Amino acid sequence: MENELHILLTEEDAAAERVEELTGYLREELLDLDVDDVTALPGGEAPPGARAVDVTQIGALLVTLGSSATALNQVITVIRSWMGRRHDTRQTVLLRMGDDVLEVSEATDDQVAQVFDIFVARHSPAGAQS
To answer: Cα–Cα distance between 6 and 127 in angstroms, integer?
Structure first.
């Protein structure tokens, strides 16, 4: 079972500082779970002379799930809850485990629940979803 989940958060028209703040809040929630670590991933270096920050890299987290069979389900539950509290913004969440990528944007709560359940099922050993 893969044990690393990459998360990328973006919010339409958000300043880099806001995305960084939101990512920090999500990281704090994820650290309360039975995971080995949650690391904020630094963005790549800006090219010489560039002034803009790459906002897409500010919202990047790496979750090391560890050996808990239910860690992925717990992480997805927190992300789903976190997204549900932000209906006033246009946000995108991209999840990647190995070669499997899931991007969720402009979806209803039911659609988010359905695709997250499918994602968890693809990466969980049989019987470990609880």
So the answer is: 24
Number of helices (H), then strands (E), belonging to the chain: the values are 4, 5
CA-based nearest residue to 10, from 108, 106, 77:
106
Most trustworthy range by pLDDT among 18-22, 25-29, 41-45: 25-29
User: Residue 90: is its pLDDT beyond 50?
Assistant: yes
CA nearest to 75, candidates 21, 18, 25, 34: 34
pLDDT at 54: 47
Burial status of residue 128 (CB atoms within 10 A of its CB: 0-12, 13-18, 19 or more): middle
